[in-house]
Amino acid sequence: MTRADFDAYCASLKATTHVIQWGNASVWKVGGKIFAICSNWGSTAEAAPEGPYINFKCSDLSYQILTEQDGIVPAPYLARAKWVQVRRGSSLSNDDIKTYIRTAHEIIAGKLTKKLRQELGLQ
Asked: Is DNA-binding a UniProt keyword of this protein (predicted)?
């Protein structure tokens, strides 16, 4: 998945906002909370062409399953919160990545207050 594809898909989800931060990372939020990031985190100068990497929040079970697959690692700086980083060459298809991003959006949206979810039209 390219960064343009990532951004287009995240933009299609309900009540999202987008910012560029942390060294040109594409950061997507719902209700002010991050659910997905496209970045070059974890790249060395030699590995930078392998990026960008797709990072997203996932369930505890998905985190366990995904991090056992080639090309998917605990996300730098966010692994303790059950985020993964999908690198080029992983076994996930673009459709699979989109499904996980949509689930990340749902997980984060579900943690927002009821009032905020109503204001954003997420209920």
From this structure: yes
